[in-house]
Amino acid sequence: MAEASKFLRLFAKEQQHTEHWLGQRLANVAEELDETGAYRLTTEELAFGARVAWRNATRCIGRLYWKSLHVFDRRETTTAEGVFEALCEHLSFATNGGNIRSAISIFPEARRGKAPVTIHNHQLIRYAGYKDDATGLVIGDPASVGFTRFCEALGWKGNGTAHDILPLVVETAGHPPAWFEWPEAITLEVPIEHPTEPGITALGMKWYAVPVISDMRLEIGGISYPAAPFNGWYMGTEVGARNLADAGRYDMLPKVAAALGLDTAHHFTLWKDRALLELNTAVLHSFRENGVKMVDHHTAAEQHEHFERIECRHGRKVTGEWAWLIPPMSPAATSIFHKEYDATVLKPNFFYPEKEAR
Ligand code: HEM
Ligand SMILES: N/C(=N/c1cccc(CO[C@@H]2CCNC2)c1)c1cccs1
Known about the structure:
This protein has helices at residues 2-14, 19-36, 43-55, 80-95, 145-153, 198-201, 236-243, 253-259, 271-289, 297-313, 322-325, and strands at 70-73, 103-106, 117-119, 129-131, 138-140, 168-172, 178-180, 189-191, 206-208, 212-213, 217-220, 223-225, 230-231, 234-235, 294-295, 349-351. It is α+β, with helices and mostly antiparallel strands.
């Protein structure tokens, strides 16, 4: 009841409900909890809770737009086919022809620690990774090797290319995991081209438009929603400075450096930094050329500053995790680097799944 009343007080305050309304709501919730051991949020309370969870996400640089999160209340969807259908609608809505809109789909809450619906994907759209155990070589995304093998064990078969989009894998209570191939029409991708360096374009890189995190747990008012996939748009460095650049991911920096004719024999030529810069320039250029929303890390940092000012104006503490908020490229060139942040984790919020109950 403590978590419930804390959340409902927050809801009443920010939505300007009367003391009378709050008293009534708290009494009803107390009764529901007494009778059934659980209570149900209204769709309006659920939507507010999801938006505040985003506002409280200490690692997120994109929080300025927390109020505009579109919420799909899917608490009545309990079959794998129903989940797939709902997520196809989510992806279409979010993609919006490239003018990406932030959204979240919230499936049924956990009951007695059990999730009625489990989504096994880390992100709804992600590339497969095929590892040859004899040579150690990987085709595709090394981060996906484990999940790719899981999908193959379920009967899924990819085309063995570096950009095979993995299926949705959903598990519902009492059934084995089911997999579903996404329709082509809702998996928008962007070919990565450099505005002036054809050698980089020739590398044939591409990335998907919409990041949808599908393995985090949403907690609101003491209720846990283990399946609550949410999407925003990408910050360019996520694709250009991590996913395509990390040695443990697509490891493209040596190839980009070669395409630029750089001297890679010594660190002091800063060939890696020059390759990073041109790769990130290509990523931002390609998303913009294809009309797919993406934010550069300087603009994103300014937007976070704006978020901080608005929060202060509303008398709310800004919480943040510095090491995550700074971008992985030129961090000290953004204002975030030169500030300290209170890393307190407020609720509602998003969490990594609890380890399997021991
Ligand atoms: C709208 C555009 C958005 C942008 C540009 C953005 C940007 C980012 C970035 C760059 C990170 C760090 C990711 C990493 O380093 O791997 C992050 C983390 C995070 N974001 Fe956002 N975000 C956006 C929207 C959202 C939305 C809509 C939600 C939820 C409703 C959200 C919740 C989070 C959470 C929970 C984390 C931490 C993830 C973790 O701990 O692994 N973000 N965001
Ligand atoms: N731009 C984004 N970036 C991310 C947001 C949250 C998490 C992640 C990926 O996190 C992985 C785990 C730690 N780093 C990679 C990326 C968004 C995804 C969904 C909504 S916005």
